[in-house]
């Protein structure tokens, strides 16, 4: 369905992507992981034709993107990392604009309104939207064309924990529809339960590309989350343990939770469901960096 072969792209003296090759099969969900500057966005932009590679070939449903870019683009839809919207238009007007731009049937607008639960913001102007709602609208725009391949750059950016859980449910629904999905993230805890295959980019090189279950078997998927809870109390610590935390440290209104990455969102969601007023949260990248270091060391030892 999607094939990238020997992709290389430099910007002046900086090599952004260096010999990246991978395949995405029909109805597969593939995640490209990596820190900022690892080459994720350049790879996606090359696939959708927004960046012209220096070397390599990209095939979308067997069509060479460089030779027949317009035909290849007809099989995919793209969500960029940063979304620019018309601030003086309402959400419903923005959806209608993109529907007409791609000559889509009106039913596709209704489809994305239901899929992304947008009815409560249809009458709002883009300038009034929160970061999370802007991201929901961006995902909706990307889903409007009924195409087989979805390319999503950091789709959970700006989403709160509940929004991320809804995104998981959305991906599951899209997979049942037969969609092929490639998306990027720098957060390890988004990979578990979402991906069939995982690629990890470091300094423009794809240092591993394998099934999510195999990667999970090899590496310990642990994360830390730092929470600020306005109405902090001891029972929230107990709840975190009940929903899978391996370690919880409380200091005043703050709480540090260590858990398997697949449990982090469940813990946050259930804390909120049980009355915790979470004012802020931040995921620690410490375990992700250690995984990078291990994979980089293995990569260097083989080369």
UniProtKB/TrEMBL annotation:
Pfam families: ABC_tran. One of its GO terms (molecular function) is ATP hydrolysis activity. This is ABC-2 type transport system ATP-binding protein. The lineage of its organism: Bacteria, Pseudomonadati, Candidatus Kryptoniota, Candidatus Kryptonium. Belongs to the ABC transporter superfamily. Residues 2-228 form the ABC transporter domain. InterPro entries: AAA+_ATPase, ABC_transporter-like_ATP-bd, ABC_transporter-like_CS, ABC_transporter_ATP-binding, P-loop_NTPase. SMART domains: AAA (SM00382). Keywords: ATP-binding, Nodulation, Nucleotide-binding, Transport.
